[in-house]
Prior knowledge:
The structure holds two protein chains of two kinds. Chain A is mainly beta. Chain A has strands spanning 4-7, 10-13, 19-25, 30-38, 44-51, 57-58, 67-73, 76-81, 90-98, 106-107, 111-115.
Amino acid sequence: xxxxxxxxxxxxxxxxxxxxxxxxxxxxxxxxxxxxxxxxxxxxxxxxxxxxxxxxxxxxxxxxxxxxxxxxxxxxxxxxxxxxxxxxxxxxxxxxxxxxxxxxxxxxxxxxxxxx
Amino acid sequence: xxxxxxxxxxxxxxxxxxxxxxxxxxxxxxxxxxxxxxxxxxxxxxxxxxxxxxxxxxxxxxxxxxxxxxxxxxxxxxxxxxxxxxxxxxxxxxxxxxxxxxxxxxxxx
Lengths: 116, 109
């Protein structure tokens, strides 16, 4: 089956620093990757959609200068949280859709970010 | 607007059936999905239904779709303690997934 990995699984950083989260499709080519944010006991909120080789499309209310998304290859997308603040602490989940089945998204295991 | 709603919590006894309900808003959704999330983990696709179907069965899982009422349900037969998790329904809208708020299922021994 299709596998999506995320790295790191957990990260703790100081306020003001930047953190990069990687999302990889391990056995398929991901033409589109999605980044979600999930607050405790809440649903997933779509942050942005990225297509390989083009700029990400951000959802309303998501600061593109704060959450930098790069989708440089068909197997890797990165989310960089710049100048992180405690309110950015959250569970970040990526998903990938690609050449296996057009409609199905395969989800990564998530990254728990804690900003002190 | 886009709004997918679910009840927040369901508690059942082991061996009973669980029914989780969902209402969605986008009548043009092609697929509707059910995902399972265990604590601290990502989402696992359980099953999905094509919008021109009204029922789909997959082992212990039965999905019912009422397009007229925009109502989707997931029935889990013979619920086990390992089924305890959060269940999200989702609709595809403009090639994006819109998730419900999630239903926390607790299975009591």
